[in-house]
Amino acid sequence: MARKYPEDDLQMAAARYLDLIGAKWFHVANERKTTRQAGQRLKKKGVKSGIPDIIILDQKKGFTGLVIELKIKGNYTTENQKKWLKTFKGLNYMAVVAYNMDEVIDVVNNYFSI
Asked: Are 18 and 56 in contact (CB under 8 A)?
């Protein structure tokens, strides 16, 4: 039986790994479904569409930090996600898209030189 939320599973696996290695990181949970009114309140509070799934604050290899947008095979980045990845790159962040846990581990290990 296929998992109902495979991207959530990938996010949770990445969270466990980042915590395991002691990374300073966070996830902005802006992918939730809400009523129109609740969505407007969130927007007024500063929720931005397209923010990467993982934001790592550790400065490594000359970068300000690392951001990772998680996608599962068959899903693609939205225009807003592409704009945010470009914005983070312009701020000297390493910015990548990862499609599975092996890619997350490879990117993180490379970034932290593990």
From this structure: yes
Kind plus residue range of the DSSP H or E element containing 54? strand 54-56
Burial 9-37 (b: 16+ CB within 10 A, else e): ebbeebbeebeeeebebebeeeeeeeeee
* pTM assigned to the model: 0.89
Q: Show the domain range for 59.
A: 6-112
* CATH code assigned at 14: 3.40.1350.10
Count of domains forming the chain:
1
The predicted structure's pLDDT at residue 1? 42
10 domain residue, yes or no: yes
* Spatial distance between the Cα atoms of 6 and 113, rounded to a whole number of angstroms: 28
DSSP 62: T
In a 3-state reduction of DSSP, which class is residue 2? coil
